[in-house]
């Protein structure tokens, strides 16, 4: 299971720089106008959509056919994808909270209470 998660994380690693750039651009665009909450939501959604990229990597490399001859069940493959999705959501939410808090301090926008 650990190796399935690491495979997806290593495959998506080269997209991390472009994703960080996109999230910073969204921070500049969203925080001053819509507040911090909208930015946190966008970060979580964008990072969770990265799972689609892992599916396209698997499809282009024909990973599923290869995985079926390995001692890995289909249930473990699906569980690994869900774990990667949870990791991406957690990273997106954490990044959104940190950058949102910093951006909120800079623009004097705080969390609505």
Describe this structure in a few short sentences.
With 113 residues, the chain is mostly helical. It contains six helices and no strands.
How would you describe this structure to a colleague?
This is ABC transporter, permease protein. The chain is 83% helix and 0% strand. It has one domain. Helix 1 crosses helix 6, helix 2 runs antiparallel to helix 3 and helix 3 packs antiparallel against helix 6. It is elongated and about 55 Å long.
Q: Helical amount among residues, as a percent range? A: over 70%
- Report, as a whole number of angstroms, the end-to-end distance: 41 Å
What letter string, H or E per element, gives the SSE order?
HHHHHH
Count of distinct structural domains? 1
Give the helix/strand layout:
Elements: H1 2-12, H2 16-34, H3 36-48, H4 50-60, H5 63-68, H6 74-107
Helix pairs in contact: 1-6, 2-3, 2-6, 3-6
List keywords for this structure.
mainly alpha; 113 residues; 6 helices; membrane; elongated; ABC transporter, permease protein
């Amino acid at each position: 299971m650990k190796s399935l998660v690491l495979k997806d994380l290593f495959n998506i690693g080269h997209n991390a720089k472009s994703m960080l750039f996109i999230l910073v651009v969204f921070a500049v665009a969203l925080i001053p106008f819509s507040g911090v909450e909208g930015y946190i939501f966008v970060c979580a959604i964008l990072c969770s959509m990265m799972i689609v990229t892992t599916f396209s990597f698997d499809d282009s490399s024909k990973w599923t056919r290869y995985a079926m001859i390995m001692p890995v069940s289909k249930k473990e493959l699906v569980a690994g994808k869900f774990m990667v999705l949870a990791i991406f959501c957690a990273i997106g939410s954490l990044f959104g909270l940190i950058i949102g808090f910093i951006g909120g301090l800079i623009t004097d926008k705080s969390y609505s209470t």
